[in-house]
Amino acid sequence: MSACGILETVSYAGDLSVQQAWDVLSEDPDAVLVDVRTQAEWNYVGIPDLSSLNKRTVLIEWVGFPDGARNPRFTEQLREAGVSDEQTVVFLCRSGQRSIGAAEAATADGVQKAYNIAEGFEGGLDADGHRGAVGWKAAGLPWRQS
């Protein structure tokens, strides 16, 4: 809230397609990918594999599973992972929704170039209630499962 009682909108640098995100990560040696899905998603669905770029995917939950409670240490953990205000930070979740909140929180904490991957790792539900037609995996970008 502002001093006038008006609700202020927190913003972030913008949305990227998965290909745009890959290009940023490939071209900017300091760019970071932060996967904000849950531990269960990382373990059972997979994570982006940036080893060909000599980078690692930073894993920080935005919300917990199964309760869905927001991680109160999110920005603190972002800093502990070495993310600085000057770096380009690309946030990823399953469908591009949770990562908006993460990008907004990072921006509010001082990260100047916080982006959201709009299609996420698996994309949103299609007309048949299925995921996977769009997103990181569907684009054929590198990923791995444990």
State the main characteristics.
146 residues, alpha/beta, Oxidized Rhodanese, domain 1, two-stranded antiparallel sheet, 23% helix, 16% strand, Rhodanese-like_dom_sf, STR4-like, Rhodanese-like_dom, Rhodanese-related sulfurtransferase
Helices and strands, with pairings:
Elements: E1 14-16, H1 18-27, E2 32-35, H2 39-44, E3 47-48, E4 58-59, H3 74-80, E5 88-92, H4 98-108, E6 113-117, E7 143-144
Parallel strand pairs: 1-6, 2-4, 2-5, 5-6
Antiparallel strand pairs: 3-7
InterPro entries: Rhodanese-like_dom (IPR001763), Rhodanese-like_dom_sf (IPR036873), STR4-like (IPR044240)
Domain Rhodanese: 27-133
Protein name: Rhodanese-related sulfurtransferase
Overview of this structure, please?
- The chain is α/β, with parallel strands linked by helices.
- The chain has a single domain (14-144), classed as 3-Layer(aba) Sandwich (Oxidized Rhodanese, domain 1).
- It has four helices and seven strands; from the N terminus they run βαβαββαβαββ.
- The protein has helices spanning 18-27, 39-44, 74-80, 98-108; strands spanning 14-16, 32-35, 47-48, 58-59, 88-92, 113-117, 143-144.
- Strands 1-6-5-2-4 form a five-stranded parallel β-sheet. It has a two-stranded antiparallel sheet with strand order 3-7.
- The N and C termini lie far apart (43 Å).
- 35% of the residues are buried.
- The mean pLDDT is 93.
